[in-house]
Amino acid sequence: MSAVPAIADVSYDALLEDPYPIFRRVRDTAPAVFVAAANLTLVTRFDDIMRIERDSATYSSVNPASLVNKVMGPTFMRKDGAEHAAGRKAVEPAFRPGIIKEHWAPKFAAICERLIDKLVEAGEADLYSALAAPMASLSLMEMIGFKEIAWETLALWSQSLIDGAGNYSRDAEIDRKAMEAGAGIDTAIEAVLDHHRAHSNPSILSAMVHADPPMPIEEIRANIKVIIGGGLNEPRDAILTLTLGLLADPDQKESVLAKPELWPTAFEEAVRWISPIGMYPRRVAREVDLSGVTLPEGLQIGLCVGAANRDDRRFADPDRFDIFRAKQSHLAFGAGPHFCAGTWVSRQTVGRIMVPMLFERLANLRLRDDTPPLVRGWVFRGPISLPVRWDA
Amino acid sequence: MPKIIFINADGATREVVASTGQSVMEAALAAGVSGIVAECNGAAACATCHCYFDSNAGCTGEIGEHENEMLDFAASERTADSRLSCQVRVVAEMEGMTIRVPSVQ
Ligand code: HEM
Ligand code: FES
Questions:
Q1: Model confidence pLDDT, tens digit, residues A74-85
Q2: Which domains does chain A have, with CATH numbers?
């Protein structure tokens, strides 16, 4: 067994710009490597992450030092065992497969229809701001059970919370914005809670107040914040990544348009290729040997699913977007007890409704030669700009 | 400690001595049965532990509401024998039982 090696010669900007060469280097160096720029020990191999996610007694989601607790409050996402399961079970009714198909899918289709109606005549747009961001925000708002909030407001809250949870340099302005977002969310919850108590419905807030036992208010506040911080970016980025993958490869695009039954496969390949959540944290609760490297008790580790999803031990030619690759499960939705609660709603709506509708309604959709798309991030990663044209 | 026989889609069989109380999924993973992915490790959230049990066996327990809906998302065809193996407990009565593993999860 050996100690965790370190990599000190990569910059944080390089990680944001293109983490994949760095992930590859880490993966080829050791099962766990301390990367100074991230100030974190990164785990990047597929099999190691799968093993870790089956052992929450050793690799805990509880972390007293995490800013998530400070910024958002006591959330089930950062708990283990029975406490985690209770919170998860409370929100489950809103994520039921039947509810997704009968309730959320038609609602999200209607939102998408309206957004496309508004832009169809323009003939060009940046799909980030014109479609994906409002789409993700408006559909999350419906799922939570909020009323009459501008999509930009929810998007701002989401970003402010994410920035706050990652603010380890304790920048005062970032802290202030995160507090402000938190206060805004508490007020928005307060405004609708009586309604949800009186009228049981498929929303997440309704599920929380009607759970047995009902979720305490401080947990409702914390969990809604986590869902706002962690349920908006990913569908937004998945919409854009799937669109980008297809637009950049006309042959694959034509295949999917000719055979719509390929959409679900194309969606899975998009989130494997550029995973919207590239990394999430765990804490080593007791000293352990991970594939030959000793991880000491208390060590913070980052599970880089964005790296595992490009592990060439599992995926051939992993950097390529290829909807025809051999079917293999990936880790874009995590694994283990914290496996994404929003997996199926995303699969059913992003991959089967939103992106197909985009290609159907915007004729001859194409990238622009003069303004290329921009993709950025490593903890969260996706296109931050996707300028396109179509025949109006 | 009943003996359970897993049969893969390609016909390969595997005998597993399972401990009562654990889930069938856990018993299969511990024995390295191929074809069961179990991404969510038993949270009934991923539908990648789908297996076919003899629906007349009488020892596989009630199917839960959530499990029932989740099975509609399974990658292989759903039949009257379909269950999420993480939601089925191993009991002594399973001695000699065969469980079929689908071709895709
Ligand atoms: C393509 C879209 C999405 C991707 C790739 C994604 C990815 C993930 C990942 C990797 C995790 C595990 C994080 C961890 O263990 O720390 C997670 C957890 C979670 N996700 Fe998603 N997510 C997506 C969409 C959504 C949506 C739309 C919602 C809500 C409406 C959502 C709600 C959640 C919740 C509540 C958890 C915490 C589960 C738990 O701790 O038990 N996700 N997601
Ligand atoms: S292991 Fe995920 S549903 Fe059974």
A1: 899 999 999 999
A2: 6-389 (1.10.630.10)
